[in-house]
């Protein structure tokens, strides 16, 4: 129950609803327990008349009518209170589920990139959906049935005991067996349903991957192999499902068997007691009703125990994520406007998951409004420099300053808002092109969106789509080429009009002609903005104010294009090689 303690705050938050729920449950069950007594009285009255103890038929009829009206009234009121009880307790559990999901979602938003690298998306989704659902069962059904059971038990046993102790003992005897058997069966059902869930996840993942990679599968002609794999997975899933249903099928027969046993005991022992003259005939009927009323709550004890165990396991998994401290935190709530002078002073950085030292003693200064180009082989650390500027990671040693202030002291929102970042791999949301461009600038006017698209040299493509800027892209929309995606991603950065523009090798999928056009547009736009361009092509970076060349995380060359082409080294070699490729 340790993990579930985390949820106590929700009990406090919804205490009034829950207390009222408990009270109403009590009222509902108390009224329901009035019915057996009234039935006993009615039967005894009829029996007394038959045995000549009461001779006036009208009195018996009056008693019966009175009792029938009371039974109807108690049943109606009890039903109404049961409705209120569900409204209060089950609705509260839904409210708590909503709060908990929001809490986890907000935590997901706060967590750093590193967290997302260490944990799989499926797992993140599972904890916020499946696990929260299991925790909800603890707040809702588990609490409701426990209160139900307690009220029924205490009141019914009290009533039964006051009528006949011996019969009470025999009536209750099979109930612990019932509870234990249901508990054992619930555990088997839970175990099997977890296995079924795992197989369903595998099946979904397999199908999803097959559909995503359908063109590869078809082009390699491996459909039969894929189908066999899927078929055998589906077969195993079916078998696991059948195992589960076999266990589930036992649930009600087991309950009915045990209720039957209790009924037989009541009839048998009750009959003997009646013959002895210890009880009236009505008591047997009253006890049979109690047995039937108590059976479900008793069975539920076993079920509730396993619900609580599952909720505990799920909350433990949720707590693991809720307790993670975001690595990147905003230490400065006061706004810190950004102008855009970026300086690295001996900055080193190692990725803790791979232990790769991506940057070693990097130093450079990029004054506000200037353009820096970063060049280097793959894996030399270019993207890492950019990640540090956007504060997706914090450097390990040295200092990174923006406008002469340590980046960690800047207001994180201001910093990120002042950066227009075009990543290496363009990501578009499943939405319209318009919304994708206006992503960081939601209220941008249509003219502004169009201008950004023109600057990114994508406007002419967009207007050729049937729905123009309202064309849906992504999973259910049109498929864009890699170059088109990159250009929409560029338009998205431009529209923000940020102080710092970062282009991480984002023109790799466009041809050199288009690249020329975009670059000349970008130079105009980024005139007074600090700009960082990462590229493998000399043509993209030759106009930059300064260029740094990276190799294995270190700066090996630095200067302007003219300086570097006149110096022996990586830059000159690459330049000559690319010149040659152009001529060929
Ligand atoms: N998220 C990460 N976690 C762990 N290691 C990483 C991560 N990103 C990069 N690395 C490693 O850090 C080194 C530098 O990577 P980086 O992405 O900065 O290189 P790059 O110069 O941008 O390469 P490319 O031109 O291929 O994009 C590489 O060895 C890479 O394997």
Automatic annotation (TrEMBL):
The keyword ATP-binding applies. One of its GO terms (molecular function) is ATP binding. InterPro entries: AAA+_ATPase, ABC1_TM_dom, ABC1_TM_sf, ABC_transporter-like_ATP-bd, ABC_transporter-like_CS, P-loop_NTPase, Type_1_exporter. Its main location: membrane. Keywords: ATP-binding, Membrane, Nucleotide-binding, Transmembrane, Transmembrane helix. Residues 19-310 form the ABC transmembrane type-1 domain. SUPFAM superfamilies: ABC transporter transmembrane region (SSF90123), P-loop containing nucleoside triphosphate hydrolases (SSF52540). It is a multi-pass membrane protein. It is found in: Cell membrane. Residues 342-577 form the ABC transporter domain. The chain crosses the membrane at residues 16-33, 64-85, 142-161, 167-185, 250-275, 287-308. PROSITE patterns: ABC_TM1F, ABC_TRANSPORTER_1, ABC_TRANSPORTER_2. This is ABC transporter ATP-binding protein.
């Amino acid at each position: 129950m340790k993990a579930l303690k985390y949820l106590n705050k929700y009990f406090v938050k919804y205490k009034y609803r829950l207390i009222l729920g408990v009270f109403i449950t009590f009222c509902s069950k108390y009224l329901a327990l009035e019915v057996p007594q009234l039935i006993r009285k009615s039967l005894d009255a009829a029996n007394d008349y038959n045995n000549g103890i009461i001779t006036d038929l009208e009195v018996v009829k009056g008693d019966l009518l009175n009792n029938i009206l009371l039974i109807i009234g108690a049943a109606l009121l009890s039903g109404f209170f049961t409705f209120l009880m569900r409204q209060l307790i089950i609705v509260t559990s839904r409210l708590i589920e909503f709060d908990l999901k929001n809490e986890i979602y907000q935590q997901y938003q706060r967590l750093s990139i590193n967290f997302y690298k260490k944990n799989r998306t499926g797992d993140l989704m599972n904890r916020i959906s499946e696990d929260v659902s299991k925790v909800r069962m603890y707040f809702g059904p588990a609490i409701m049935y426990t209160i139900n059971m307690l009220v029924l038990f205490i009141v019914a046993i009290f009533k039964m005991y006051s009528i006949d102790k011996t019969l009470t003992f025999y009536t209750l005897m099979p109930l612990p067996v019932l509870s234990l058997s249901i508990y054992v069966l619930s555990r088997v059902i839970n175990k099997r349903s977890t296995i079924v869930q795992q197989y369903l996840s595998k099946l979904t993942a397999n199908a999803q991957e097959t559909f995503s990679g359908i063109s590869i599968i078809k082009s390699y002609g491996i459909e039969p192999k894929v189908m066999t794999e899927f078929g055998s997975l589906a077969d195993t899933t079916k078998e696991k499902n059948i195992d589960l249903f076999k266990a589930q099928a036992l649930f009600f027969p087991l309950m009915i068997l045990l209720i039957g046993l209790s009924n037989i005991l009541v009839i048998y022992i009750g009959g003997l007691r009646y013959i002895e003259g210890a009880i009236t005939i009505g008591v047997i009927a009253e006890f049979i009703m109690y047995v039937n009323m108590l059976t479900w709550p008793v069975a539920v004890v076993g079920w509730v125990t396993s619900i609580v165990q599952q909720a505990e396991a799920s909350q433990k998994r949720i707590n693991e994520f809720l307790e993670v401290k975001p690595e990147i935190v905003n230490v400065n709530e006061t706004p810190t406007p950004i102008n855009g002078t970026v300086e690295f002073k001996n900055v080193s950085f190692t990725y803790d998951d791979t232990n790769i030292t991506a940057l070693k003693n990097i130093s450079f200064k990029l004054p506000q409004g200037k353009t820096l180009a970063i060049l280097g082989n793959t894996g030399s650390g270019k993207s890492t420099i950019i990640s540090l500027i956007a504060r997706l990671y914090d450097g390990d040693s040295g200092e990174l300053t923006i406008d002469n202030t340590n980046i960690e002291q800047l207001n994180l929102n201001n910093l990120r808002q002042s950066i227009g970042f075009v990543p290496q791999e363009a990501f578009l949301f499943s939405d319209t092109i318009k919304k994708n461009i206006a992503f960081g600038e939601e209220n941008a006017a249509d003219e502004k969106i169009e201008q950004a698209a023109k600057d990114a040299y994508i406007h002419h493509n967009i207007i050729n789509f049937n729905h123009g800027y309202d064309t849906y892209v992504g999973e259910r929309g049109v498929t864009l080429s890699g170059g088109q995606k990159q250009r929409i991603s560029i338009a998205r950065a431009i529209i923000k009009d940020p102080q710092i523009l970062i282009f991480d090798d984002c023109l790799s999928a466009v041809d050199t002609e288009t690249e020329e056009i975009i670059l000349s547009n970008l130079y105009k736009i980024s005139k007074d903005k600090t700009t960082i361009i990462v590229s493998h092509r000399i043509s993209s970076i030759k106009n930059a104010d300064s260029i740094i060349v990276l190799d294995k995380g270190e700066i090996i060359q630095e200067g302007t294009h003219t300086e570097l082409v006149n110096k022996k080294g990586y830059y000159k070699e690459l330049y000559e090689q690319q010149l040659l490729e152009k001529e060929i």
